[in-house]
Automatic annotation (TrEMBL), chain A:
It comes from Eleusine coracana subsp. coracana. Residues 8-28 have a biased composition (Polar residues). Residues 57-90 form the F-box domain. Residues 126-462 form the At1g61320/AtMIF1 LRR domain. InterPro entries: At1g61320/At1g61330-like, F-box-like_dom_sf, F-box_dom, LRR_At1g61320_AtMIF1, LRR_dom_sf. The lineage of its organism: Eukaryota, Viridiplantae, Streptophyta, Embryophyta, Tracheophyta. Residues 1-29 are annotated as: Disordered. Pfam families: F-box (PF00646), LRR_At1g61320_AtMIF1 (PF23622). This is F-box domain-containing protein.
From TrEMBL, chain B:
This is SKP1-like protein. Residues 16-75 form the SKP1 component POZ domain. Keywords: Ubl conjugation pathway. Belongs to the SKP1 family. It comes from Eleusine coracana subsp. coracana. Pathway: Protein modification; protein ubiquitination. Pfam families: Skp1, Skp1_POZ. It comes from the Eukaryota. The lineage of its organism: Eukaryota, Viridiplantae, Streptophyta, Embryophyta, Tracheophyta. One of its GO terms (biological process) is ubiquitin-dependent protein catabolic process. Involved in ubiquitination and subsequent proteasomal degradation of target proteins. Together with CUL1, RBX1 and a F-box protein, it forms a SCF E3 ubiquitin ligase complex. The functional specificity of this complex depends on the type of F-box protein. In the SCF complex, it serves as an adapter that links the F-box protein to CUL1. Residues 124-163 form the SKP1 component dimerisation domain. Part of a SCF (SKP1-cullin-F-box) protein ligase complex. The keyword Lipid metabolism does not apply. The keyword Chaperone does not apply.
Amino acid sequence: MPMPIMNHSMSRQRQELHPQTQASNRSIAPQAERNISRGQQHENFLGHQIKICAGPSLPEEIWSHIHSLMPMQDAARVACVSKAFLHSWRCHPDLSFTEETLGLNKNACVTKDETAKIFTSRVDHILRKHSGIGIKTFKLNVASVYNLKGHCHLDRLDWWLQIAIKPGIEEISLSLSLANAKFNFPHSLLSDGIGDSLRSLHLTSCNFHPTVGLGCLRSLASLHLSMVCITEGELERLLTNSFALERLELKYCSEIICLKIPCLPRLSYLEVLICRRLQLIESKASNLSSFRFAGEPHVQFSLAETSRIKKLDWLCSGATFYACTELPISMPNLETLTIHSRTETVNTPMVSSKFLHLKLLNIALGGQTYDYFSLVSFFFVAPSLETFILNVQSIRMGGVSVFADPSNLRRMAEQRHDRLKRVDIINFSSIKSLVELTCYIVESATSLERLTLDTTHAQIPQEILKQQNVASLAIIQASDLRNTISNIHGSTDEDAYTIAEVDELRTQAINIIDFYCPLEYM
Amino acid sequence: MAAPESGDGNNGAARMVTLISSDNTRFEVEAAAASLSQTLQLTILDGGGGGGDGIPLPNVDSATLSKVLEYCIKHAPAAANGGAPNATAVDRAELERFDNEFVNIDQSVLYSLIMAAHNLEIEGLQSLVAKKVADMIKGKSPMEIRRTLGFPDPTPEEQAEMNAHMLEYGWAYE
């Protein structure tokens, strides 16, 4: 806390700070403020002289500011408290229309048609009363769009957008329902410089065909298009004119075959998910640090400066093989890698290249014949790895159970992965190669602090589940930690089972093992 | 410019400046911290506040000014980095923790702070305190809000206006 210094100018004549501008630019004259705080009369609210208490003595523009920070439903409710609030409600900057904000999600007994009708009339009412001034955020999220005459959102949508999209608009989010990509987003509303202030454009399920007339969206930092009909030429032109773009997200935009991203110096986040006809992503953005992709394995990539990418999410069949063999070379500075591969047909090979900075590896993986033990190679590829999360996707079909063939569990000669601190295996089961992998981790991760074996997957047949729990317990037991296991969420009667091979495992520094199994086995 | 004249010829680079509260208490702070105030920034750039001179703030009493400066000193390093785009998560968490504790204060102090932040045009502080008041109001009925904010009970006319509004925006009260 700053301490006052000795006052040696008590007699100094006080001067006001910029007395001229202060009086003209602000609604509070300094003198008035002093008076108010001494509890005198004031007429800021409701046009009446009211006795001033501490609260209402603030000038109207401050109350407006406070009011503007409230969510729409609260703002509508408190508008009646004072004239200042009523006034600021009519200029409320944040209009967010969803069934929730309009108080519609609580009426479960109302039919969808009625909901749509009420939704439309409430939005209409709010916008009719709104001054149309100062709107910064316009969000509309319609769970289902009805085309029935009289209560169609789409009939009114053009008018709503005309009210909302004015100079100063910063955020537009329009989310229509799945099957209704019929609405043409009126991009012309953003032309003539009106789009200059726009920072975020988020469109779901509509047509968006920007023309040359749209011009530059000079402030646009975030563009999200989901189930939007836009051609690759239109998108490329839009991107070229959005040189401040930081985030680009495209989902289910099936018209795009070749995605061309120009040199956008600020673009750091790119997400391209399930664009069905996509063949090629070509990006000249040189500052990309985070990339998320979901799609077909045949999609080609031509990305600039991939060594700057630190975070990658890769959702694609065969992604594990690709991640181990290709990525250490093309994206050597990755720190976080998430892989989701529903079908992994080739086992993960040992390679010599490395991710020197990879700290977190999250793999969700399926494949009938996949050898989970081959994932061991990632511990060599990523020597700095601290967290390893594996989500097994092929519980029902994959691999031989360790109970069917308990012999000759594979092991590797003395290895140490001493950076690894946390391992989660979700959908842990008795698949032999998975047990081998787990044993390997327990044996070689000398600094492991936490191991989670989660067997709570609901769809496993009971017999298998029982076996899995036994397998999990066997590992726990084998690691000779019975006295330090603090988080066993469930247990079976058969915890006397052990597997001879893992029995020999030496005690590790692990102090917590989480073991989850369904309640009926607790 | 009506800024106080600088007696010692210091320019905007002056490291320390003196601020004088309405009750004539003098506070010496780094110019960088005081410059979080848009109003003071101009004065400091004009050469005011240095040496034996001080910048009088006739609208801010010493208790409030002390609180305001506590905020400015804490936030000055981050503000100097242009909103701290390179700040670590730890730094940001620390500022957030500070902010949360900072506004955990008596309502009357809160209002004095709002006025001071407004007068001195300290954007971050204005938002922080306004958000605190907005949070105090959230989820309350109009009458509860009036009481929370210290409004007097409504006159019959005001009550009629309130009722009409509640009817009009019935959904917002559900």
